[in-house]
Amino acid sequence: MNLNQLIRPHLRDIKPYSSARDEFSGSSAIFLDANESPFSNGVNRYPDPYSTELREVLASQKGLNVDQIMLGNGSDEILDLLFRGFCEPQEDQVIISSPTYGMYKVLGDINNVEVIDVPLNEDFSLNTKDIAMKATKSTKLLFICNPNNPTGNSFSIEEIEHLIFTFPGLVVLDEAYIDFSPNNSFINYLSKCSNLIVIQTFSKSFGAAGIRLGMLFANPSIIQFLLKIKPPYNVNQLSQRKGLDIIKDEQILERNISEIRNNKKELIRALNVFDFVIHIYPSDTNFLLVKVKDAYSLYAYLVKHNVIVRNRSNQLNCQNTLRVTVGTIEENQRLIILLKEWK
Ligand SMILES: *Cc1c(COP(=O)(O)O)cnc(C)c1O
Fold first, then answer.
1. Would you say the pTM of this structure is higher than 0.90?
2. Out of 10, 109, 111, 214, which could bridge 72 as a Cys pair, Cβ 3.0 to 4.6 Å?
3. CA of 138 to the centre of ligand 1 (A)
4. Which residues line ligand 1 (CB under 6 A)?
5. Ligand 1 atom 12: the closest Cα is on which residue?
6. pLDDT tens-place string over residues 179-206
């Protein structure tokens, strides 16, 4: 991979903003360099622009080096940064496979970058042949959401592998739901695949959507470039601190995952009883895509009774589907009780 050819031309020699904390980063000093308030209240100082402590702990947990990790204000900021760093508006393209996470297309539109859709096959598997056919020198990014939102399935490991090895641009593997899946993360491929970008998030299995913390794992040369173009203080101090608390407590993740897994099993069992439930798609995630007889009226009925699911019926090959996030036992029971009363 020639990274320089993938980077937008005007960014190849960009001189990044140099913050006060870039120029001096020691800790025990009198800081009169950043026009901060001197009065201690826990947040009067700018945060570490590189989230160093958080990245160090993540590195040791994931078996990576710190220089393979970048953090963002949610994965959404990271995804946007990829467009801004690699895709020349009205010139370059990216590939997505619908139905998938809506942000890829929205970010393409915002950044004025063409989004080529190579839809999933009807069984929600990847159409690797067509992806290969559409890929050119200017197809900078290939987004693969694995396991996929909203369909819930994981793609074939061999097919993802093949795409990483053959795609001419960067392969962005969005692993927002990987902790719920029985499969391993593709993080292990980073050492041999310099064009691979793996994205994970604190928003799902870690239970911390509110702190907006996303993780990007990639080759050090990609990280170095992204650190140059990211907003200097993109991850705030409260999020860095809370993120550290969460990953240092190893039970949080385990507890969340096992409880969601149990609740999901029970929810599937209970849903399968209803004759208006036509199909529950296999799910490696914390949600279920459910095909029902009349998604629109069922959705409206549930809203009326204060239970909100996501109607995915307008997504490709998702006619009459609802996406149901697995909740607490009580929340799921409430849903099931309502469904029993639906006619
Ligand atoms: C929920 C989700 C995310 C998380 O985005 P954040 O900005 O980190 O909250 C990313 N990708 C997919 C596919 C998701 O479903």
1. yes
2. 214
3. 26
4. 74-76, 101, 145, 149, 174, 176, 201, 203-204, 209, 214
5. 176
6. 999 999 999 999 999 999 999 999 999 9
